[in-house]
């Protein structure tokens, strides 16, 4: 596959012949929905998103590729790969409209920046510098924006708290110095933190704001104090954890002294209501990663999300076998994503991950991010939808919470089947990352939603041959399927097809 590849896409995809013979029908795989095996259930808020704490407070976040100054990188190193971004306006009408359209979700406000964020619990102007032991400042106004955003969307808030030196006593012990005022102010606003990790990514704590030489024993002691406090101050808040990432050979840079195995076997043993993990299949070119667009559609890449799950699922099964498993942070690649994360090329990975993990029993998948850097669903400055946003929109509208096993063997494509959201029926997702069209036989009539692009690396995506774009900043396009009759159907090369079927 070349980096730029033309996909010729006809508007009408039905190839139905009245002269079809019985022998032809036997040769073509059938998409049959009778007697499907129900294999899993996901949460109503299965598809969820992250809003980085850095976005909320305004801070140093990944610089766009077209603004990277190679001379500055040579001179200043890693710091030159970031730029100052303003705090996100969570009252923006366009942002709210687009997020709301995705359906019920969790909004996770966290990230590495949350580990060192100081909550300024007053209504004075924002501090120009964080207190000693912290790096960032979160104001009441900014946190109110988060609460109001979640309430507007009817979303449930997930977060994490500071772990840096600033919130510790003179002996280095965990204190409630930061979590207490944040919980109290949340209650004052009549908001709710539905769930929280103690802090973000302990697997990378050495460069995530934790005290020097922080290890699994420190984590266990901190967690004991944390849980004792929140069990009284926020008894309904679910505790997620540990929220590590990259283990099992998926990524490098992990801290060997604080692996997930060591965290869950340390004394006192941490116990979580929900087992959480993070997944990135690699790091972006921004951080010297070796991923390439030429490999973005091969099965090794598309299935890698299952490798990440396998490692953490085995750990969960060993220590917390009854805990549901959530993927609380994931995207195309760590360090803000690759240049092609903004294009149709990454939409295959996005939907493969959603389909594969649902079949494996993962309850929630939180995409990183909503509107920051290349891996975001929306353009950072304009909030215009990217291809992954439109894919997420169709998933949210069509794919229900019941997951079924589809045993059809259609060479070259993967098929995922859920109940049809809000109706009595099924929704099937067919993903064809290959360079040739694939035919199969429909045994009943359906509605088709076909996603294509003129080029795989295009930011512009088409639904049933028509470019998807907003009618205005506050008006969605009319999302409609095309009726297709039972018979032969072709899934074009490099395309994604949703099919909906009424009645079970």
UniProtKB/TrEMBL annotation:
GO terms for molecular function: hydrolase activity, acting on glycosyl bonds. GO terms for cellular component: membrane. PANTHER family: HEPARANASE. This is Uncharacterized protein.
